[in-house]
Fold this protein.
Amino acid sequence: MVDLSTILAGFADAFTLYNLTFVLFGVVLGQFVGAVPGIGPIMAMAIAIPFTFGLDTLPAIAFLVGVNKGGLVGGAVPAILMNTPGTPDAAATALDGYPLAKQGKPLKATKMALFSSITGDTISDIVLITVSAPLAILALRMGPIEIVALMIFAFSILAGLIGNSLIKGIIAATLGLLVACVGQDPEHFTPRLIFGHWDLFNGLPLPSVAIGMLAISELLRRMSIAHGGNVTSAIINEDTGNPDDQRVTWAEYWSCRYTLLRGATIGTILGALPGIGSTAAAFMSYATAKGSSKDPASFGKGNIQGIAASESANSAVVGANLIPLLTLGIPGSVGAALIISAFMIHGLQPGPLLFTTQGQLVYGLFGAMLMANFLNLWVGQIGLRFWVKVVSAPESIIFSSAILLCIVGVSMATSGIFGVAIMLIFASIGYLMSSFGYSLVIFIIAFFLGPRFEKSISQSLALTNGDLTQMLKSPVAVALLVLSVVSFIWFIRKNAQERADDA
Amino acid sequence: MVGLGDRISGTFFLLLGLTMYLYVNPNYIETVDGGNISPSTFPNILAIVLAVCGALLLYKPTAQQTPDIRSIAITTLYVLLLCIGLYAMSKVGFEYVAPILALVIMLAIGERRSLWLAIGVIGIPVLIWFLVTIALGRALP
């Protein structure tokens, strides 16, 4: 499917000074925004996507990957120094990072987080590079019937795993699919739900919806919390004066090898499944490390094993998240959904065909990911002291500049104010949805998959002459539908059990 | 009150689903003869699912807390501010509106330090202008 020359050409494309500059810029930006509580790499990616419009595809995607990876490293800084995770992924890191910083070892804690993050990320990237092409070959054998069944399975997993209610998950997915119906129907191309606005004929612009829902709605939420209040942050920045407390020795790193490997494995497996975010991976890895430790009582009191467990797992999710994206075209997380919108802005359709049509680009992306890991380590080593200062930047300037950047970015991506107006509408919807406990991740993923889902249903009906019982002749489709039903029942029982426990 | 939030949102989605199914879809989706799937089939199914799930949520709410009314009111004011800013941008342009919008947001959040205000009101808009118009060669809104 992809020959060696394509793979080598892809890596050669990646390892140029031009791409290196963009990856470096992405990593620096990612670490910077990750260190600022309230911004995070997802918002940074959302804001940055329209600005990559003028770039070639590879540097644009590589830049965004750099932002995503850098953000995970940066996110650990406020978690450790302020007990305020810059990203939700870093919440588990704060459990041991913050106590270690309070003991006067903030640099040891942040450096352990950096090394663990790089280790987990690199292992996950290697898995991605080795398994994605064979998986894509399998995916290419799937017809519309199997794709419909696969998407039903993905939705059932997403709706059940994210949030605390299966019904609310289904509502979020349904709403996303309904919003995706705006524009034209995929079979007859007649206008649908455009209410006389012909700007909507090609559907609601993905950058407007994604940036509105993910970035602006979060900014609105945080602005309402910060409204009229204290705009400065207090951080821990004391040290003991002992040089050993400001670094991680090789012995300390090596003592965490099993924890790191276990964290990377958990992160990679969970990351490959759509919907299970890095936060879940970090907490699962932390709990496993604590459970298998000879001294579990030391966890939560500044044990570097706790930092190693959470950071290696949450960073491993990033690479593995691209497995369903590149092999099936299904984004497994918000970060992956944003990378998909970047692919689409550059005229590419993610999925198994990408390996055939754009194999060189895919391997260029893999090369950029590996490059980003090394740069993450390098920038982190130099920048950690600087990011400590960044966490004290006032929210007022961060929020106002992020809003201006979102407005400009969406205006550039959608060629006008109309797209910005759509962004504001979806920001309000996103704010209300998150306030009432609905998952924005499911909404965005369903919105992205909606047209493909409907098209696959239409193609399946054409193939089966309208007789959907023909689907039963496909063992893969049947297996996926059975799994959907099983997961559906399992989530209903799990929710009922949780409700009973709460009561 | 526990469960009230879900009852409110459940009622909303029940009504939204019914409105979509009974009024919006029949009036705003064109009908087409032939084909495998009518343009309204998929939105109709989704509207029904939405209404049913809304009803289920109404019947069996989770322990979701009711959102804080004060936060929603403050957010509404920020949304209105952004709408006004956007309208003004469409009339006079980003370069004139952005500093004022940034100033109002920073003051509303509680920023009073002149250095940070200067950075947010002058520095950031100038930086965006430079990035977009000079570096990227694109037009500002």
